Amino acid sequence: MKRKSYSPHPQSGLNRREWMAVSAGAAAAVSLSGCGNTTPVPIPPSAVLIVRAPAYDQSLYDTVRQILLSHRLDVRGRNIVIKPNLVEFEPESSINTHPILVHAAYEAFRAMGAATVRIAEGPGHRRNTLDLADAAGYFKTVPRFEDIFTDLNLDDVTRVLPKRQFSRLQKMYLPNTALGADLLVSMPKMKTHHWVGATLSMKNLFGVVPSAVYGWPKNVLHWAGIDESIADLHAAFPRQFALVDGIVGMEGNGPIQGVPKHAGVLVAGRDPVAVDATCCRIMCIDPLKIGYLQLTADGKTSHMTERNILQTGESIAAVATPFALIPEFQRVRLERS
Amino acid sequence: MRGGSWTEPTVYAVMAALRSGEREAARRGLQWIVKAQRPDGGWAPRPEVDQSTWVTALVALLPEEHLKAGQHRQAIAWLMGTTGNESTPVYRLREWLLGNAIPPDQQFPGWPWVPGAAAWVGPTALAILALDQELRRNPQSKARRRWDEGRRFLLARMCQGGGWNHGSSHALGYESRPYPETTGMALAALRGVNAPPVYEALAVARRFLKECRSADALNWLRLGLRAHGQMPSDYCPPPDIACRTVPETSLDVLVSSAEASRESLWT
User: Fold this and answer.
1) Strand intervals (E) in chain A
2) What is the residue range of A206's domain?
3) Could you tell me the end-to-end alpha-carbon distance of chain B, in angstroms, rounded to an integer?
4) Between β-strands A189-193 and A240-251, what pairing exists: parallel, antiparallel or unpaired?
5) A219 → closest Cβ in B113, B174, B214
6) Residue A184 forms beta bridges with which residues?
7) ipTM
8) Apex CA B212: angle with CA B208 and CA B216, to 5°?
9) Contact A173 B48 (CB under 8 A)
10) Rounded distance, CA A32 to CA A252, Å?
11) Chain B residues within an 8 Å CB radius of A155
């Protein structure tokens, strides 16, 4: 059952009906804004694209390119940092973002004219990042991997004071490679998480926090509040794009000891909150019950309600795949599922 | 070379340079370390960070005579005053008021990566190695109690079946798996402990030594097995293992040289 079609046209991910909907909204916004100060201005929705991707194969190179083009990302002359989710030394498991997907994004950004594209990650449990990347298949899949990779755990850092502080952290030391990116591309695995319910593009930013400062694990973030720390990191990186690897995700006791779960989708968008909320709905998790989404959906630039998400491509109903939840998180199960 | 200096790689590089007789390189590294001490007696991961952390234990592993007068003592004092947040009186009082019993793996205080967070295996193992050295120099030191408690902390954090991961042996009823690098670190810190749990961990470490493909992990496994006289005499590191960082290269130099000379590494 397909609600909205995925446009393969390289200039737009929206079909005619969606363009009309967006245009009507924009026209209404313009017209209403002239009616007086008391009338609320309609908020532009966040576009999120869901694409079917049944397997990790060569077709992903074209699929990812089309996804990025459909979001009209102008990356010409820009510095792009791709942040996958690298956690453990288990290439056969579904813990890490698949290397072929990351390489597909790398090639797509290069083809779109980016000045530089780097892959960067700072794993939270294991110190030996390059060995971990090697075991996860990155050296085999990504040519010259070591030349284009930055270990964020060991990168130079800058002290950042949060603009709006959610956690108890009054300051954070963050890696210059990530802070200096014109676009930080969060590429997580679609997984359940035994502390926060679901780990997606926003939780993936824990990997930018440098372990050489905070340790393995980055336990300071837990003491400061996990949901709140995710919100702080989200605020620290305003120029993001999210591309979630939901081809084979993880259910149950994620993010490490869960069970592989085939969902066969990629989910993408500029608003990480909207992307993560959409992923939750695909996983049959209620995003309104996920703490960090509650904190970050400001209703202005970050949306989690369906009415404020312009969802294109496959419908949620068409790709919905219930992810098993541990007993402690049964409460976040989406009731309609 | 890109970027600024960090305390951890500098300390390991200085140790390797001292061991190999590279006196000028060691002198420059030591000069940087001496200057980087913070007013509270500890060291930060790098000078821009305004907090002393776990790297203080690494500095305390350097021979006392290579630091400025009093610096070594201050480093030990900083370690003695640092504990995981779950062991602080305030946290324990809060848990008592809430009616929560202390879990068995939180009975003994270890060391955190960063003050204000919980204790973990890595920083606890390094602090024990530093206090071990201190106790050899000064057997009457007050450090003995923390050294002993730290070792009990490690034993309480062992994974089911032997070995250690970062320090979370189970969560929400699930058992966690051990890692090679932290298993080696913990075994190095438990030198002289003869007990069945350690025998289990040694068996896990020997298995890791055969399978592991990480230079960092192999370095620590060699140190851990060697601390218990269990390093296979015919061991030969796999030829295609890459040392990819300064700590990995430096530790490899240190471990290989200690193995060749049959000397202890940090005594």
Assistant:
1) 46-52, 79-84, 116-121, 149-151, 157-160, 172-175, 183-187, 189-193, 197-199, 240-251, 259-269, 309-313
2) 46-332
3) 32
4) parallel
5) B113
6) A81, A240
7) 0.93
8) 105
9) yes
10) 47
11) 3
* Amino acid at site A321: T
The answer to whether B117 contacts A223, with C-beta atoms less than 8 Å apart, is yes
| Confidence band, pLDDT 50/70/90 cuts, at residue A18 | very low
- A49 to each of A276, B152, B181, how far by Cα in Å? 12, 52, 41
Least CB–CB distance from A216: residue in B122, B176, B245: B122
Asked whether residue A337 is domain-assigned, the answer is no
The reply to whether A226 falls in a domain is yes
Q: What is the DSSP string of A283-321?
A: TTB-GGG-HHHHHH--SSS---SGGGEEEEES-HHHH--
Residue A222: list chain B partners with CB under 8 A. 117-118
In a domain, A240, yes or no: yes
Q: Name the minimum distance, in Å, from the CA of A297 to any CA of chain B.
A: 28
Residues of chain B with pLDDT under 70: 1-2, 172, 264, 266-267
Please report the number of interchain residue pairs, chain A to chain B, with beta-carbon separation below 8 angstroms: 93
Domain membership flag for residue A150? yes
Is B75 in contact with B60 (CB distance < 8 Å)? yes
> How far does chain A reach from its first CA to its final CA, in angstroms?
16
The domain total for chain A is: 1
Nearest CA in chain B to A125: B166
Beta bridge partners of A79: A116
Q: With contacts defined as CB-CB under 8 Å, which chain A residues touch B94?
A: none
pLDDT in tens, A164-203: 899 999 999 999 999 999 999 999 999 999 999 999 999 9
Q: Does B120 touch chain A (CB under 8 A)?
A: yes
Task: Pull the structure tokens for residue B69.
Answer: 């007068």
Which residues on chain B are in Cβ contact (under 8 Å) with A130?
A: 242, 244-245
CATH of the domain at A286: 3.40.50
Read off φ and ψ for residue B26, nearest 5 degrees.
-65, -40
| pLDDT tier for residue A327 given thresholds of 50, 70 and 90 | very high
- In this structure, what DSSP letter does residue A243 have? E
Q: Is B112 on the interface with A (CB under 8 A)?
A: yes
Q: How far is B3 from chain A (nearest CA, A)?
A: 6
